[in-house]
Specification:
heterodimer, A: 567 residues, mainly beta, 5-stranded mixed β-sheet, 38 strands, globular, B: 115 residues, mainly alpha, Cytochrome Bc1 Complex, Chain D, domain 2, two-stranded antiparallel sheet, 5 helices, 5% strand
């Protein structure tokens, strides 16, 4: 019996009940974990969602199979939890450990919630710097990290905070960024727990700052190191151009224990659309960086977009896979190119296209990664670039199912007219994006293409198994489960469960607000739950209505909705 | 008379509070074309157009709304807004009161623009 995937099936539960009578619950839980597949396979610790992508390989795959293709029609709401403050909706991926959900909402408010009932266990609210009212990226967060008896929080005023996991009491806090003097540089994603070190990636691409990744001692909060995502190199950043070069790492990285490496994807260089002020490669922006978590030492890097002028960050999820004896790192760049590389050194294995409408370049060399046939922007003149600065997909992550061997990811096909203009640099002009344009581009549809898709693809070759087209793209992360299901939701609140093999829609539910978050699955006392954070928000909610008028009236919310099979 | 005096006094008090809150002392003539033009330049320079569009027809549309109350617009810019899940940052001390009034003038000119 492979306990990891069958623990929550009724037959397995009955069988295990016998053992429980003899050995007791603690032994049962220990046995359940012991029967899981080998650590690192993506199926370990099946009942929990202990980190941002559940496992370090970035799969967003729950091996639980109690909810499956045959019974999905019996999926019902088990409970609903309201965060209270709905500012910018909810963008989090909740963490679930041993029957407790750790959730973060607007203003960096953290709650521990009973995963069976939805009732609060404790709440923690940090007192934020009033300057957070003025800065560009606030007051939202995409999650917390949990481990070593603590809940770790990265705040929108640039602090790291540790909370006692059981009591909700603060254990330590450390100011990491120079928040008032660096254009409000802060954190909008959870830290990564890499052994006894926490790593934090700062916002940066659209800020007049030089973004950094920080290493902190997890038990004490002591800062250990800083990694500068803006390389101190005049060949890469002439004169003073790197001083406000952006970069940063605004999405969570991932810790690979096998190689003792923390991987991060970095943000775009600034000003986004004005390359003439920063001639050079602009390292280490738009790059994958492999860091030693103890020291912050750079092991290797791969820059995906040299001298970016289109806002094509490299911050999305890092998918780790083994196939044909290769240890691979697969990464979607915002540009729509997917780079398949050696996890150990970043050497390219393949490059394929998720987007069908790429026009910023003719191609990317699959051997070297060089961009071929770049389209440069002209100051003061609009140039239609595909994909738009929203990317071939936004930061909502895809999911990989090891049973099907498919990576399920949203994709978008729309463009933007980009017009670079002169802009003064002022790190205290807190709310003005440091991008060299009066807008993020005038969005426009790509003729002959449906704007949104959910694709099921081979992550290494890009070969497509199935696709589901939508008039409004999804901005919520995908969840894949051992029950052969794929869950995904859209900005109108339509939550769908697909057959992982063929893309057939098996179940739908409208959550009442849009999805901009990470769906997770967990099990408590033999019952599997699908947990859906619902609440439309983020800059997508503000910037998309001119292109998608259907989004003008989407109600805001910050709600956790737990689903389970009706008894 | 006493009652009228009380009412007038109360109104005067609230008017003075609002004036102080909205820094009415720095308020220019909001219909002056030079003020409106200066406001437009600031509006674009500070990227209000990201969310509101260069002519007020962006994702958070200004043209469709009744924004004819100057103090309301000034306070929204100065102190920011969090409404219906959307958030606008606060600009007080990043911009001077006079600059906020100039942007206010431009926004009012947009919302009054016949469509």
């Amino acid at each position: 019996m492979r306990c990891n995937t069958s623990l929550c099936s009724k037959s397995a539960a009955l069988a295990l009940a016998g053992y429980a009578a003899v050995f007791g619950l603690a032994v049962l839980l220990g046995a359940a974990r012991a029967l899981a597949e080998a650590p690192g396979s993506g199926t370990e610790d099946p009942n929990n969602w202990p980190q941002y992508h559940r496992t370090s390989n970035g799969w967003r795959y729950s091996p639980l199979e109690q909810i499956n293709k045959t019974n999905i029609g019996r999926l019902k709401v088990a409970w609903i939890h309201q965060a209270g403050d709905i500012t910018h909706g909810t963008q989090e991926t909740p963490i679930v450990v041993d029957g407790v959900i750790y959730s973060i909402s607007a203003g960096n408010r953290v709650a521990a919630i009973d995963a069976k009932t939805g009732k609060d266990i404790w709440r923690y609210e940090p007192k934020l710097d009033p300057l957070t009212k003025k800065v560009l990226f606030s007051p939202y967060s995409r999650g917390v990290a949990v481990g070593r008896g603590k809940v770790f929080l990265a705040t929108v005023d640039g602090r790291g905070i540790a909370i006692d996991q059981k009591t909700g009491k603060e254990v330590w806090q450390t100011q990491l960024t120079d928040f008032p003097n660096c254009h409000g540089c802060n954190f909008t994603s959870p830290p990564v727990l890499a052994g006894d070190v926490l790593t934090f990636g700062s916002t940066g691409g659209e800020l007049a700052t030089a973004g950094k990744i920080y290493g902190v001692e997890a038990d004490s909060g002591k800062k250990l190191w800083e990694f500068e995502t803006i390389k101190r190199d005049v060949a890469s950043w002439p004169a003073e151009s790197g001083k406000y070069g952006g970069g940063g790492a605004w999405m969570p990285g991932t810790y690979d224990a096998e190689t003792n490496t923390v991987f991060y994807g970095t943000g775009n260089p600034g000003k986004d659309f004005v390359g003439s002020e920063r001639e050079g490669d602009n390292l280490y922006t738009d790059s994958i960086v492999a860091l030693d978590p103890k020291t912050g030492t750079l092991k290797w890097y791969r820059q995906e977009i040299k001298h970016d002028v289109w806002d094509y960050d490299s911050t999305y999820e890092l998918l780790l896979l083994q196939r044909d004896g290769k240890d691979l790192l697969i990464h979607l760049n915002k540009s729509g190119f997917v780079l398949v590389m050696d996890k150990l050194n970043g050497k390219l294995d393949n490059v394929w296209r998720l987007s069908e409408t790429i026009n910023f370049a003719k191609d990317v060399d699959p051997k070297t990664g060089e961009i071929i046939g770049r389209v440069e922007l002209q100051m003061g003149k609009p140039t239609v670039i595909c994909p738009s600065p929203f990317g071939a997909r936004s930061w909502n992550s895809g999911a990989y199912n090891p049973k099907t061997g498919l990576w399920y990811t949203d994709a978008m096909e729309f463009c933007a007219a980009l017009t670079p203009v002169e802009q003064k640099t002022d790190p205290k002009d807190y709310a003005t994006a440091h991008i060299g344009s009066e807008d993020f581009g005038k969005l426009q549809l790509a003729s002959g293409h449906v704007p949104g898709r959910l694709d099921a693809r081979d992550p290494i070759t890009g070969q497509r198994r199935w696709t589901y087209e939508t008039e409004i793209p999804s901005f919520g992360s995908v969840l894949a489960t051992g029950g052969g299901l794929v869950f995904n939701g859209d900005p109108l609140g339509n939550l769908r469960a697909f057959d992982a093999d063929n893309g057939q829609v098996l179940w739908t539910f409208n959550t009442g607000s849009g999805l901009r978050s990470g769906l997770v699955s967990y099990a408590v006392d033999g019952k599997q739950y699908i947990l859906v954070p619902s609440g439309w928000g983020s800059y997508a909610a503000i910037l998309l209505p001119p292109l998608f008028p259907q989004l003008e009236k989407v109600p805001a919310a910050s709600t956790l909705i737990a689903f389970s099979l009706e008894d | 008379m006493a009652a009228i005096a009380t009412v007038i006094g109360t109104l005067a008090f609230f008017a003075s509070v609002r004036a102080a809150h909205s820094a009415d002392g720095a308020r220019p003539d909001l219909t002056d074309s030079k003020v409106i033009s200066a406001g437009r330049d600031l509006y674009l320079d500070k990227h209000c157009s990201h969310c509101h569009g260069a002519t007020g027809e962006g994702g958070v549309n200004l043209v469709k709304r009744d924004l004819t109350n100057p103090s309301y617009v000034f306070d929204a810019i100065a102190d920011g807004r969090e409404r219906s899940g959307l958030r606008m940052p606060a600009w007080r001390e990043v911009l001077s009161d006079r600059e906020i009034w100039q942007i206010t003038a431009y926004i009012i000119s947009l919302s009054q623009n016949p469509k």
